Every structure is written in structure tokens, then in C-alpha cells.
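Q: How would the C-alpha cells look for this protein?
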Amino acid sequence: MMHHLFRNALVALILCAPLSSQAAELFFSPKAGSVSTNEQFDVVVAVQSDVPVTATEATLSFNPAALQVVGIDTAGSILVTWPTEPLFSNERGIIQFSGSADAPYLGTEGRILTVRFRAMSNGAHQLRIDDAVALGPGGSNVISTLESGIYTVEPSSLPVEQSAEPIAIIQEAPTSVPVPLLEQGVDLEVGDRLVVRGLVIPGVLVHISVSEGDAEARTFTVPSAGDGSFTYVSDFRVSEGVYRVSAITEGKGVKSEPSATVSFSVRPLGLAAAAATAIDVLTFIIPLIALTALLGGIIAYVVYRRRR
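A: Here is the predicted structure in C-alpha cell form.
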């Protein structure tokens, strides 16, 4: 849950807050280098900022045919809380993380994490920062520069001596997540709320798509519980017609295929419910009519008295 709140807060701050005139830079150290085929080498992801930075998140990308991640180490990081633990996928060629600091960081080389790569093929290969956020004073995004790194892989004529220093192995990101299973739709009456229930794996987000007739679908997001169950209750009341609902799972940056669509039919109010609604309306309207008539009588009497 903290991860979702952190992620939503970052998105809201990006959308709502203007960039500060002061800036921060996310960069790699070293920014360039030469290695031999099958050699392992370390790259530090760091931040340089002239304003205090309290949190950061980023997505890095690389050519998985040229480079492979061996492990990721957060030792010595300025970030201590990780709503999104550093994850990588050697199949998709990405690294993702989001974290926050106990105390704001201000300086020239704030270590975030160290990535150990293995060089797989010859040539010059780029390591990119595709997207990044660093929160500064007032919650503004102070990132102004996203650096890239270039690492040249050359043929090896001698056996490669690997570093004996151990590095933490971070779990590789999943390449797929299961499709959520929705309960069958039920018949509703006008004025009811839409309730969607289903089952998937624990600890993921479920994006629920709701469409009515030819209207554009709306998407609502709920988390799955510890047993994998999830429930969505609409904040709107349904009108007569058919609502079609489907869902997808999102976990650790990976989304599933859409689920099968279920339908909810909304029928007009029954006689009892319609009568109750009519009584409610009349209960409001009759006193209003009586008050209007009383005011009209008073005004007519006042006019009559003035004319005499």
C-alpha cells in the first residue's frame, strides 16, 4: 500500500508542480568505458543537485543483446526506503526503482545504486535514463538533465579476470502476470452501485475498465488483498442499460492481457422502489407548493391593502 501511495504522490506532483529554477542531474559513473567480451563491470547511478532532494524514481534501459545485468547493490545509497525495490529484466532490457531518503540530499555525487553488468557482444552500447523524477523543495520535480552512458565492448584475447567483490543479487522482474478472474455480472436496478469482484495474485494493482453503451470506457484501479481477492465499488449510481466490465493486472511494471468481459444489466426501478421514489419527491414538492401559495397570498394581501 505504501508503494502505491508513494507512486501516486509522485505522479500528482509531476502533474501539478512546475519545475524549479534550481536543478538536479541523474547520471552514471563512469559515463563511459571499455571492457572485454564476457567481462563484468560496475556502473553507479547517482544524483547531483544544488537543491535538497528527498526522493527519486527512474527507469533505465539497455540493449539486452549487448549487456546483461548480473546484480544490483544499494549499499551506501542516499535512499533508505524503497516503495519500488530495484528490479531488472534482462529480457526487456530495463531497470526500475523508486526510493526516498531519511534526510534531504544536497551534493555532487549522491549514490543511488550500483549495477553490475556483463558485456555480451562487441561494439559501443548505450545505457539510458528514459524517465526520472527527483523531488525537491515543495515537492517540485527538480530533474533538468538525464545523462546517458556509452560502454565499448572489445574482443577478448585473454581469459577475463572477474571481480571477486560480491554484489547483491536483486530479483529479476517478472515478464508476465496472471489475468484477473472476474465474477459473473448480476442484474441491477437503476440507482444501485456497480460492485465488481474478482481474484488474482496478492499484492498487485487491478485496473478495471467500465463502459456503458457507446460511451468511452472509464478505468478505475484497486489493489488485490493478501488472498488475491479484489473488490471495486463505483462512486456513481447506475442508469438503465448494460455495463460491460473487464480488467487487467499490473505488478512490478508488467501488465497482463485483458480479462474476459462480464456484463451487468440495469433494469428500471420496480413498482415498490418507484413508489418510494415518488413519495420522496412528493414529500419535498408538496411543502414547497404550499409555501409558494402562502407567499403568494401574503403578497396579494399586501397589494390589496395598499390600493385601499
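The helical segments are 2-16, 271-307.

The chain has three domains: 2-154, 181-267, 271-308.

Upvote if useful.
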